[in-house]
Amino acid sequence: MLIKLKNKDTLVLDEHFLKCSIGKKGINRKKKEGDKSTPKGKFTFGKVYYRADRIEKPRTSLPLKIIKKNMGWCDDVNSKFYNKEIKTNKKIKHEKLFRKDNSYDCLVVINFNTKNIKRGKGSAIFLHLTKNYKKTAGCIAVKKNDLFVILNLINKKTKIKI
To answer: Range of 51's domain?
Structure first.
């Protein structure tokens, strides 16, 4: 199965056309950390993270993990944990996964720069939630019901073409 990004604002999955938002600077073949662009390419999906205190357990065949208060995603180019899940630590720059807003109540990792990680190439690229389709820092964002449709249909072989 292949999910395609069409016209920078629609994800196409079989007969489903789902409105989405992408990075503020559009799509970039040469993504770099902090450039606010969404990476161009074809990627698989990783784990699904969710806030059990806010939403029901998603139905998916992908691996699931509950987001805890001390969880983050390292975006520190000087860290050996770059572009990996970490326990939050003031010494390491990171993206908090346990947030006050609802953006990360449910997210799925887009496997960009997750194997043979190159520091500075870009980190924390997720398919996550939005309420207003505001442009992101590089992720792809959809409404909760649409993310649940996607998660129900995809598997570890599914790819997203950006």
So the answer is: 2-161
